[in-house]
Amino acid sequence: MKRFFFSLSLLVASGSALAENPLVQTCFTTDPAPMVHGDRLYVYTGHDENNADFFWMQEWRVYSTDDMVNWTDHGSPLAIEDFSWGDDRAWAPQCVERNGKFYFYVPLHSKLTGAMAIGVAVGDSPTGPFRDAIGKPLADGNWDFIDPTCFIDDDGQAYLYWGNPTIYYVKLNDDMVSFEGEVQKLVPDAEGFGPGKEVPMEPGKKYGSSYTEGPWFYKRDGKYYMVYAAGGIPEHIAYSMSDSPTGPWKYMGTIMPQKDETNSFTNHPGVIDYKGKSYFFYHTGNLPGGGGFGRSICVEPFEYNSDGTFPTILPTKEGAPAVGMLDPYQRVEAETMAWSEGVTSRQNAREGVYVSNIHNGDYIKVANANFMSGGPRTFCASAASGLRGGTIEVHMDSVDGPLVAELKVPATGGWENFAYIEAPAQIEVPGMHDIYFVFKGRKGPELFNFDYWQFK
Ligand code: FUB
Known about the structure:
Jelly Rolls; binds beta-L-arabinofuranose
């Protein structure tokens, strides 16, 4: 089959795909911490439990993209059980790379002190596996000890900041898992971190500043930025700037105002540049069934003002435009998706992450697939069913758009007995399309699990 490769920039410019917020629909995801490695953007998250009444969080998760619209679920490479000294509250993480190792800083509840602590795990790849790097907390013993943020300065000095509502920091040693001396304490004041509001139930008394939690520390064009959740509950996102990595800090104002329509009393920032554009990550409670303890990560594109300050960034449903496209003639993991309804993901040692909990009428959307000029001829997928299976209908551009293929998934003798199955393509669909995998079968039970797909 002859295929023509058009200029990437031409096709991307003409593509209209947008990241849809929230970015992940298969489970609740919180506290986004972006990191660029190679040509991919990774986002490390927490995971709110279904029907939770507090932040009873048990694991951290990783997602990645190379086009800002299709996100791949890498599962959970780190959880509370990986820290022998921890027992609960897998809160806001950040992962950074140094010398080919990936350092995953996390807050969790410590069995040693009965309070929160900062832990550090290490892995050889951005998706893990990760292991507790030191077998004990990096910093322990204080309810303030949450939400670590790490930045490695141009001179190689790494800084770790954290804290709610006090800010703490250390200069990490080159090993990234230890530091010399005492933890430094920075009590945020109004000049550095904005005016504090009144303390509820204590008329006339004000908090010392607007800083609340969730710091995100980085440097851009010689200036240091601290972006954070502010204003107490409900939170908005504000920022401060400095000429030095350890302050003094100057309050610079609000980035994302508190909006009732975010349906979450917390918010949490992560800021990064990727493929020449700037992105602001945050979370809302806007997945169906979500709320203050059922949050979901989102992204907005933005441009810094010419003086390096932030514009106001508002939460949207649309998110960020595509900066790339997907090749449907390569194997694509089923857990790579722009949007989905009804399905969740699971992972095992052999397949890694796969799509599960598939019922009649559920679907997955994959955006900006470039079929080029002449195909496809065949649709292939790997799926498993411990019952009677079902059908993957492959539609273009909407759930009831042109039908390209109908792939019958048989009973494979087990929910993890994956079989490779092919179906002929019924029509040609040259050019750029959004692909919809619409799942059909008996109404009621789970139909099958879905590991990967490819067109030929
Ligand atoms: O996700 C648990 C906690 O909620 C985080 O540590 C805070 O930043 C807030 O988002």
